[in-house]
Please model this.
Amino acid sequence: MPIYDIAGLKVSLSGCEGRTEKQALPYLSEKQDEKADIEINITKELLSLHRGPDSKESDDDWIYMLSGSEFYGKLTSYGGILLHSSCIVLDGVAYAFSADSGTGKTTHAKLWLEHFKSRAHMLNDDKPAIRIIDGKVYACGTPWSGQTDWSTPEIAPLGAICFIKRSEKCYIKRADTAAALHSVFEQTIRYVGKSAMENILDILDRLFNSVPVFELGCNISDEAVITAYNGIVRSHNEHK
Model:
């Protein structure tokens, strides 16, 4: 089975041909003789069990979803979660923009790329891994990057998480702790088993004590980028 470098871990993928294998190609490890930390095996039996006869998704789509879910469940044992978000890297620091599907997280992230040009790039457009390594929080590219397949196989320190809400007037504020916990929980996979759930709750507790979480009300404009930058990035720099 091929070995991939994902979120600082060695990951083997079996039964993941098609879209999943294609999106994982940039993560292929140069050291194929090393033991995998995480093993993912999508068998025909597993696929049949989950897909069901009335599913509108293809086998390829189901392999993609199941492999991501399998990775997530095992990632929790290594201090990590997958967060439904569009995550960019600006000047070496990652910022994750999360929201319900269709709210505009990718659109907002693209505005950052257009505004900051060569200073910024996309880390992952759908499900970056957020992982605690040696007591510090990092955002990591993963092959589970949505339909856009827009990701970079790298790890960057996480500066902030920002939850986007549509608003005609742009604003940025620190999120209420209870609301932030609810928002993070809503944007992360929850059906991962009891032991993984216990790990997730511990990871979120450590995450909130290390990384600021914001609420961003914004429209589709450069003003939204400036508002977010002033509130998120400057806050991060002040607390270094």
Notes: The two ends are 42 Å apart (CA to CA).
